[in-house]
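Trying the structure run again after the queue cleared.
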Amino acid sequence: MGTSLTPEFWERFAVLLVLGAGLTCVLAAVFDDLAVRLLRGRAHRTAPPQAPPARRPERHHPRVSVHS
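Done. Tokens:
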């Protein structure tokens, strides 16, 4: 005893398939936006970059005479 797939079934199947795909895309975009906002918020809250430390003048050693 087999069941036939009626046009009504295919219509409902197509509607549900499109709704499911649309809902998946919308939810993916919402969660992606949420993740980006969280990452930007964390990066914004961290301490601002500090200027590199000032370079110390190099100490010059007295030259040693080769001809002593």
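The first helix runs from residue 7 to 45. Worth checking whether this holds up in the mutant runs.
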